[in-house]
Design a protein that fits this description.
Shape: elongated
Strand content: under 5%
Helix content: 55-70%
Largest sheet: none
Number of helices: 59
Oligomer: single chain
């Protein structure tokens, strides 16, 4: 890559020189044969003029071009000499300077191949001729010839890039050499930009004419560096010559060139060696003697260039402890400023990788000439400006010097102003610099300082009355220039007043008040600002009132302004503080004392009760209200306050439409305020303390919303509608309750109640789940049946839960059921219908239940309340439906729902009867039914009747159906019975006390896992005086003990044996014979079930035979085996 770039540069030079007046093709006449032909170098290479000349330094040239500079020729020697340096540079370019911008070396070491050696030679020949002509021109400048020759003989670091060129054609009067003037010490800020542009300009002479010698002297090291190390392109060669022409007028040029001639590699090693020696002396506990270095500092001006560099590096770059007197002697001497500054620039240019800049900056800032030193470094080495600036900001010494340095740096580089001020803000230093450079881009930094408590403490330490007043004047000046907003000025001045105890002058008060009363000012912002600074209200009450009244009279009043008025009326300061803090964008508290006068003024003249309540009815709702909002005071908070205080009732303001609009804008997760809002609205609706009360939310409006397609996916809104309906039903009394019950039933049919129950368990509804769950359990307990959820999870063709089944889906299911009742249906179709029915039930629960019942009973006038009042009517469908167990499963699911709903229906009737003022004519007072066991007995009798009907159906179905069909129907009915028994174990007692066909006992025991609970009440059945009940108990115990041979069964069997023997003695002959003929299996089976009771069973059996006078041929056989007697069951007795 390096050779490729050189080739490109040489191509440019060749194009310029082919048509030049001094261009000659062919070989040069000067030099010996070795030179003309390329000669043989030490490695045996043979080449042209670019080959190395081993006789370098011998002047054997006899031709016109031979000789040295005195004869104006010598092109071959000079160019070969330069070529040797170029080749050496390629080998040693790794040692070059590491400062960005000055280091122009390239990575890689590609060498030309054999195929392009000839082309490269031709290019180099042309380049040598062009460079020789530039050398002749430079030789005409006094002293430059010898100084340049010494530079070119230095190590390869200084010859990073070849720098030879001719002067520009603008030459003869392009600026003659003026007298060499001594330069002053102090740098000025003027001309800084021009000086920096001079280092990178393509026409440096034109820029130099605009600068003074003092300004050019400050960047003399960089000019020499650039003038001697420009790139070998044609336009760069001209720049190099012009730069050298500019610096040639300074007598200090020789001194700086001597600094460049130093062997910096050896100097670096010597400095490190001296530092190690000093470190060992200090580690040994010995005191370092500074006498020698002090003597060198005294003779610093007469020292050689190398000694100057060593002394400066030894003192300023040493990280060990040093004597401050050394720094003072070296840096605070006025005659040393210019010399030390040049040395520092050269040292950093060459040895930047060996020194620590933080130590240098720290040492320089202890000097009274710190500004001159650091600015000289920044001007000469601009690539390190940000590094120096960061180190200056980190240092804590010499605040005045740091301030002036950074201010000058900002003038030189305005683009870095914001970055530097942010660093000062982070380090909490140089506050004066931040305030002096305040503008539209840095106002935010001041706001950050004043808004943070720790940084505000830093501001207070630097705070003075003059600083504060200047800051306020600066802010208003920026505002007039449209560089600062009204909000920023108000926030800054409010923080100054509240936290920094700043008292504003009369002029500043007038300025602030004029700013507040502008037509463009936000009224809410201005009012919160007045709360923070009540002194502005004094003697200006009328102006402020005239400013507020038009805004309050407008129909489009800001919501925050209404909230402020409400807080002022209620004297509720905590939310007012929060509102003011959010408006002004910083935490603040209102002082109750001074604020009292302002509050009374606002209440009497601006914020009246009537005006506020009327305006709150039009307040904007909160869009997408949810629990993730961090605002502490939403409009819903204030509506809740108005409702709770009865202000809406007093001023006849309907808030129900507003609450309905807010419910429509709620999303998940539900915000807790919406629960309070609904509760307060319902409480206000049913409150009988006021003559005028709020109307409920229009039922027709809710109905229209639920039937519209826009409500399909708004589950959160439907959840809140259900909460409102149930809460109103729970608290409503009298006429409102009657009217509500009649109209709300239609809305329940439109709500996806089962799906809402499922969604209520998620975290999105945690705010309303406790209350809504309680109300649903009390008023709609039937919706908690979860059978449909099993089908939603297991169905392989399940549609997403979020899909909404419309009315046409219900009609399709009803039509299929009607067709089934008429034409029949296959088992597969019946099963698919069952799955579809459960899926639709999740979203249209009660409506689907009602439609199905109407189809089964062929009664379209049937209502859900009718079904709840008489659940048994559902079983009056056609007997042929039992041929489809899948449909029977749906009917039994509906039956469970209706039985649960009938409980609430009965409670609602009792509650309504209790609220009636007229005396009741019922035989049993309903007021006593609720707390009477009769209520539970009535419920149990109703549920037991359903089971009895099903068992009777199963008994009848067995007579006509085949065994597989009977088994399937038996499984469905027994599953329903098992669920009923689990839900209410007391129901099993009622069913068995009433009795059912004996042939159904064994199927129930085998198909109903909960039948074992009958062992708990069989003793009570044996205690009854009814012989049929006792016989049924023995039959039940016989099958139960055989299926559950457990300890409880053994104890019951023991008791039953005693009862059996007793009954044989007390019963009449006819009853005894009937009793024994139906229960003898109990005696014969117990011997095999419980072998230890065999003797007792045989004894009771003998008594029964004698008592009944049975012949031996009619005796029953005992059912046991020898195996049973040999290995009896192990029973814990």
């Amino acid at each position: 890559m390096a050779d490729a770039k050189i080739d490109m540069a040489l191509d440019d030079i060749i194009k310029k020189n082919r048509n030049g007046p001094g261009n000659r093709r062919g070989r040069g006449r000067g030099g010996n044969m070795m030179q003309r032909r390329g000669g043989n170098n030490q490695r045996g290479n043979r080449g042209g003029r670019i080959g190395k000349n081993n006789n370098f330094g011998n002047n054997n040239n006899r031709s016109r071009g031979g000789g040295n500079f005195r004869r104006g020729g010598g092109r071959n020697s000079f160019n070969q000499q330069n070529n040797n340096r170029s080749n050496n540079f390629r080998q040693q370019r790794g040692r070059g300077n590491t400062i960005p911008g000055f280091n122009r070396r390239n990575q890689g070491s590609d060498k030309p191949t054999a195929t392009n050696v000839t082309a490269l030679r031709r290019r180099m020949v042309a380049a040598q001729r062009a460079l020789s002509r530039a050398t002749k021109t430079l030789a005409s400048i006094p002293r430059i010839r010898q100084q340049r020759q010494r530079i070119l003989q230095q190590p390869q670091k200084l010859r990073n890039i070849i720098t030879r060129n001719k002067l520009a054609s603008a030459g003869a009067g392009a600026g003659g050499i003026r007298k060499r003037l001594g330069t002053g010490r102090k740098l000025t800020g003027r001309g800084g930009g021009a000086r920096l542009y001079l280092l990178s300009s393509t026409k440096p002479i034109e820029i130099a004419r605009k600068l003074s010698d003092q300004q050019i002297r400050s960047i003399l090291p960089s000019l020499l560096w650039l003038g001697l190390q420009q790139c070998p392109k044609n336009h760069r060669l001209t720049i190099s010559a012009q730069l050298l022409q500019i610096v040639s007028r300074f007598h200090d040029m020789d001194t700086i060139i001597e600094l460049f001639e130093i062997d910096f590699h050896a100097l670096n090693l010597e400095i490190k060696r001296l530092q190690k020696i000093k470190q060992k002396i200090l580690e040994g506990g010995q005191q370092n003697s500074n006498a020698l270095i002090n003597q060198e500092i005294i003779a610093f001006e007469q020292a050689t260039a190398r000694d100057r560099c060593r002394i400066v590096a030894q003192i300023l770059f040493d990280d060990n402890e040093k004597d401050q007197q050394l720094l003072i002697n070296l840096l605070d001497e006025s005659n040393h400023v210019r010399i030390v500054g040049d040395v520092l620039c050269v040292l950093i240019l060459h040895l930047s990788h060996s020194f620590k800049f933080d130590i240098l900056i720290s040492n320089l800032l202890h000097s009274k000439y710190a500004y001159e030193y650091v600015i000289r470094l920044i001007l000469n080495i601009p690539t390190l400006k940000l590094t120096f600036a960061e180190l200056i900001i980190r240092c804590s010494a010499n605040d005045d010097g740091r301030y002036h340095i950074l201010r000058t740096l900002v003038k030189l580089y305005p683009i870095h102003k914001l970055h530097l001020l942010r660093l000062c803000h982070q380090r909490q230093t140089l506050l004066s610099l931040i305030l002096d450079l305040l503008d539209h881009s840095t106002v935010n930094i001041l706001l950050l300082i004043l808004s943070n408590q720790k940084q505000r403490t830093w501001f207070k330490k630097c705070q003075t009355p003059e600083l504060v007043h200047n800051l306020i004047n600066k802010l208003f000046e920026l505002y007039r220039q449209k560089q600062c907003s009204q909000h920023s000025i108000l926030k800054i001045t409010a923080i100054l007043h509240v936290y920094c105890n700043v008292k504003f002058s009369s002029d500043e008060v007038q300025q602030l008040l004029a700013l507040l009363l502008l037509p463009t000012m936000d009224v809410t912002l201005g009012l919160c600002y007045l709360f923070m600074i009540p002194s502005l209200v004094e003697h200006n009450e009328q102006r402020i009132i005239e400013w507020l009244i038009p805004t309050m009279s407008s129909l489009e009043t800001d919501d925050k302004l209404l909230m402020i008025g409400l807080f002022c009326i209620t004297n509720y300061n905590e939310p007012l503080n929060a509102l003011a803090s959010s408006t002004l964008d910083f935490p603040c508290r209102i002082d109750p004392g001074p604020f009292h006068h302002s509050r009374l003024l606002l209440i009497q003249r601006v914020f009246t009760n009537d005006l506020l309540v009327q305006r709150f009815a039009t307040i904007q709702i909160t869009l997408n209200l949810n629990a993730t909002m961090t605002l502490k005071h939403l409009p819903a908070h204030f509506i809740c306050y108005l409702l709770s205080k009865g202000l809406c009732n007093q001023h006849h303001v309907q808030m129900s439409p507003w609450v309905w609009s807010q419910i429509l804008q709620c999303i998940t997760p539900i915000h807790p305020i919406i629960l309070t809002l609904i509760n307060e609205l319902v409480t206000t609706i049913v409150d009988a303390r006021y003559t005028w009360y709020l109307a409920p939310i229009d039922i027709q409006t809710i109905h229209d919303y639920l039937v519209s397609s826009s409500s399909n996916d708004h589950i959160s809104t439907k959840m809140l509608i259900l909460l409102y309906l149930l809460t109103l039903n729970d608290q409503a009394t009298g006429d409102i309750a009657i009217q509500y019950i009649q109209s709300a039933r239609i809305l329940f049919d439109l709500l996806p109640l089962p799906h809402l129950v499922e969604q209520l368990t998620t975290k999105d509804y945690d705010a309303i789940a406790p209350q809504l769950g309680r109300l649903m359990m009390e008023q709609l307990p039937q919706i908690f049946l979860a059978d449909h959820a099993l089908y939603l999870e297991t169905d392989s063709q399940l549609i997403s839960l979020h899909h909404v089944y419309k009315a046409d889906m219900i009609e399709s299911l009803v039509d299929q059921l009607k067709s089934t009742l008429v034409n029949g249906i296959s088992r597969k179709q019946a099963d698919e219908w069952r799955r579809g029915w459960f899926r639709v039930y999740a979203y249209r629960g009660q409506l689907l239940t009602l439609k199905t019942a109407q189809t089964l009973l062929e009664n379209n006038q049937l209502t859900y309340d009718d079904l709840c009042a008489d659940p048994h009517s559902l079983l009056r469908f056609s007997f042929q439906v039992y041929n489809y167990p899948s449909i029977v499963q749906i009917i039994l699911f509906i039956m469970r729902e209706l039985l649960i709903a009938s409980r609430h229906h009965f409670e609602r009737i009792i509650k309504a009867k209790q609220q009636q003022p007229t005396p009741s004519t019922d035989i049993i007072p309903l007021q006593e039914v609720k707390n009477n066991p009769l209520y539970e007995k009535l419920i149990h009798a109703q549920e037991a009747l359903v089971i009895q009907i099903l068992l009777d159906v199963l008994h009848e179905y067995k007579k006509t159906a085949c065994l597989p069909a009977y088994r399937e129907l038996q499984g469905v009915i027994c599953s329903f019975v098992h669920q009923m028994f689990i839900t209410n174990p007391e129901l099993a007692r009622h069913v068995h006390f009433q009795g059912y066909p004996s042939d159904q006992i064994k199927p129930l025991i085998y198909s109903v896992p909960s039948m074992h609970i009958c062992l708990n009440f069989i003793p009570r059945m044996l205690e009854t005086n009814e012989l049929d009940t006792q016989i049924f108990a023995f039959e039940l115990l016989t099958d139960l003990s055989s299926f559950y041979p457990i300890r409880t069964a053994l104890l019951v069997v023991k008791l039953a044996l005693q009862v059996y023997a007793t009954l044989l003695r007390v019963l009449s002959n006819e009853d005894r014979l009937r009793f024994f003929s139906r229960t003898y299996k109990f005696l014969t089976h117990m011997s095999s079930t419980f072998p230890p009771l065999t003797q007792n069973s045989v004894y009771v059996l003998q008594q029964a035979i004698r008592a009944c006078s049975l012949p031996p041929s009619n005796l029953p056989q005992l059912k046991w085996t020898s195996d049973s007697l040999g290995r009896p069951r192990r029973i814990d007795i």
